[in-house]
Amino acid sequence: MLFDDAYKTIESASESIFRDKGSKFLAYAYPMRSESELKPIIAKLRAEHVKANHFCYAYRLTPDRSVYRVNDDGEPSGTAGRPILNCLLSEDITNVLIVVVRYFGGTLLGVPGLINAYKTAGIEAIKAATIVSKTVNDVYEAHFEYLQMNDVMKLCKEENLQILNQQFDSNCILKFEIRKAQLNQVLSKFDKIDGVKLKYLHTI
Question: Which of 19, 63, 128, 198 is the most interior residue, by most CB within 10 Å?
Answer without folding.
Answer: 63
